[in-house]
Amino acid sequence: MEKTPLSLRTHVSVFGETNAGKSALFNRLLDQDMSIVSEISGTTTDPVTKAMELIPYGPIALTDTAGLGDTTAIGEKRTKRTEQILERTDFAIYASACNNFNREAYKKMLLAFSKKNIEHLLVFTKADLGTNGLENEFPNAVFVSVNDDHSIEYLRSVLSERLSALAPDEQTMIGSLLAPGSTAVLVMPIDAEAPKGRLILPQVQLIRDCLDHGIRAVCVKETELRETLNYLPKTDMVITDSQVFALVSEIVPKNIPLTSFSMLMAAMKGDIRVFAEGAKAIASLKDGDKILMAEACTHNVSHEDIGRVKIPALIRKRTGKQLEFEYFVHQDFPGALSEYALVIHCGGCMINSRVMKNRTALCREYGVPITNYGTALAYLTGILERSGSVFGI
């Protein structure tokens, strides 16, 4: 569990007003001093995220946020960063000190949680100073003191129960598509974009997913694919890097299902049918249209970069239009999308499914089609129908 990527962990975020004891609570849940603790209001300036194992639930990502209602000089920016954390929060802890509970601030956060469909747990800190009768008003709340180990352990147990009750669907890239004992051939080109001495995250995650579901994973470069298919007695599916979609499609017989790492990742974290429809919107682009390219990680750009070079070049060639591409990297994403004709997202291996679903919902709200790298490339290379058939589209 310690090696589980943050993108595959349940994201639990601690919210609350300044000086509510959030950072002290965060540290005690982790049993580590990750956030600075001080009596000075507004000590936490930026969100801090740490992976932890919540027994018996499993791996989670715990985030400490800057206090709401921060009146310092940079309080507005801190609050905005805190609000952005809502986009990737699966479950929230709202922390408030027993001796300073602001009901209006709590009600305001309840509306924010409701809008994002986020369940929460109300936790009152500094209970050793007295509860002020709050246990009668909020019988389902948890009262803790960072000086009381038993109260922290009780909070962990309640949190584990609440997360288990969420009963999220299993996150699998391939386990729902192939039966145990199947054989999948994974095509992994080694080019300038491939990190030296290691595989990219979607490839690693798919290999592990195959192992978890009893699926044989045969890893090859595109130059070895034809020989490998001839050698294997049976191939149940071929998964390829999006950049060699067209070449691989020519090699793989029509009776063997074919898709990409990016499309598998998109189907696991979002709605692949929405992405397929978004890819088809490329045909309707007009001169002067602006396209938002969303990249969930930061990386150096090269002449082979898929999002900044290859996809824009293919779209311009396919449409013959003068188009503008604008890039948002890592956690950045515009709150308004009215100026864009299309959103093209990366595979999303570095973000959790909550982020992808929220971004898709925002696109729907503004009536802007959204697709992802792999699905767009499948459309642009003329094999979307074939690669999409794996998902029933």
Question: What topology does this entry show?
Answer:
Blueprint: E1 10-16, H1 22-30, E2 48-54, E3 58-64, H2 75-85, E4 91-97, H3 103-115, E5 119-125, H4 134-137, E6 142-143, H5 149-166, E7 183-187, H6 201-212, E8 216-220, H7 225-231, E9 237-240, H8 245-251, E10 258-260, H9 261-269, H10 272-280, E11 290-295, H11 306-319, E12 324-329, E13 342-345, H12 353-366, E14 370-372, H13 373-380, H14 384-388
Parallel strand pairs: 1-3, 1-4, 4-5, 5-6, 7-8, 7-9, 9-10, 11-12, 11-13, 13-14
Antiparallel strand pairs: 2-3
In brief, what are we looking at here?
This protein is of the alpha/beta class and 393 residues long. It folds into 3 domains: 6-166, 3-Layer(aba) Sandwich (Rossmann fold), CATH 3.40.50; 183-263, Rossmann fold, CATH 3.40.50; 271-387, 3-Layer(aba) Sandwich (Rossmann fold). The chain has helices spanning 22-30, 75-85, 103-115, 134-137, 149-166, 201-212, 225-231, 245-251, 261-269, 272-280, 306-319, 353-366, 373-380, 384-388, and strands spanning 10-16, 48-54, 58-64, 91-97, 119-125, 142-143, 183-187, 216-220, 237-240, 258-260, 290-295, 324-329, 342-345, 370-372.
